[in-house]
Amino acid sequence: MVLPLPQRPQSGYRGRFAPSPSGLLHFGSLISALASYLHARSQQGKWLVRIEDIDPPREQAGASSAILKTLEAFGLHWDEEVLYQSRQTQVYLDVLAYLKEQNLSYFCQCTRAEIKAAGGIYPGICKAQDHPPQGSAIRLINSAGHYQYQDIFQGTISCDPALAREDFILLRKDGLFAYQLAVVVDDICQGISHVIRGCDLLDPTARQLSFYHILDRPSPQYGHVPLAVTNEGYKLSKQNKAPAIDNQRPQPALVAALTFLGQEPPSELLPTSVEEIISWATTHWNLDKVPRKQQIILPE
Ligand code: GLU
């Protein structure tokens, strides 16, 4: 069996924004969307959108279309068709079948409590056992264990080697596909060359790099922009009910996001149109100005 995934196109920048529809876009998501858009457009690259709707219990009704409307209102127009992960089921199943056939994965029946008792990092208990698929999770045999990489904005990133070596989950016991499986498979399917996103995903990137290595496919380049956090140090997230950004007044949020990203937008930009702001930002995008910080506290 050969890996049922396409080869990456030989050349050309292909970036993407991949929101989960567990809520509406907030200021933190706007920063990631804008940074990935500007980095792509400033290099005449393509910018794609993927809706990461693989977790129906956490999905908010109507969020996918609301997110797309917000991106349009903010002048972030994408290329090609939006990819919905909920329509990728067969591709994920084919990749899982390939990994099993190649002895690159195993079924696991351990409970959370058992893993906690073993120290929190999965020690491979089920690897030597031949569990049936029913009621099992699927874990990748993580022979790569990448824990260091070069980040476009943050320089050298070093993650906890033990965590990076863990045989991580590809299919959950409840039958849902895991983020690590879907994100890597879809970045390969969409031919993504550059992944620009928030610093909350610094650690998962190490796992994703291991997965590319095991699949024998070139990985994209990764760049993580600082995370917007509240005064109390919480990241803005859909889970902690960060306020949604206002589609009716995109200009102030765009200018604030550019300021956050260190781009020093001139004050004359504020009263102009969304198109003018995006056009200024694309022309002036300077990655050296993005703060080399993993998080920044938002002013009250
Ligand atoms: N869907 C993830 C999120 O909304 C982002 C995934 C990614 O950029 O790789 O947090």
UniProtKB/TrEMBL annotation:
This protein's GO CC annotations: cytosol
GO biological process per UniProt: glutamyl-tRNA aminoacylation; tRNA modification
Residue ranges the record marks as coiled coil: none
Enzyme Commission number(s) from the entry: 6.1.1.-
Domain of life according to the entry: Bacteria
Binding site for ATP: 238
Residue span(s) of domain Glutamyl/glutaminyl-tRNA synthetase class Ib catalytic: 14-263
Motif ('HIGH' region): 19-29
Residues involved in Zn(2+) binding: 108, 110, 122, 126
Textual note on the cofactor: Binds 1 zinc ion per subunit.
Cofactor(s) demanded: Zn(2+)
Pfam family, any one: tRNA-synt_1c
Motif segment ('KMSKS' region): 235-239
Molecular function as annotated in GO: ATP binding; glutamate-tRNA ligase activity; zinc ion binding
Residues noted as binding L-glutamate in the record, renumbered to the chain: 16-20, 52, 179, 197
Keywords linked to the UniProt accession: Aminoacyl-tRNA synthetase, ATP-binding, Ligase, Metal-binding, Nucleotide-binding, Protein biosynthesis, Zinc
PANTHER family recorded: GLUTAMATE--TRNA LIGASE, GLUTAMYL-Q TRNA(ASP) SYNTHETASE
Family: Belongs to the class-I aminoacyl-tRNA synthetase family. GluQ subfamily.
Name the record gives this protein: Glutamyl-Q tRNA(Asp) synthetase
Species lineage: Bacteria, Pseudomonadati, Pseudomonadota, Gammaproteobacteria, Alteromonadales
Gene field: gluQRS
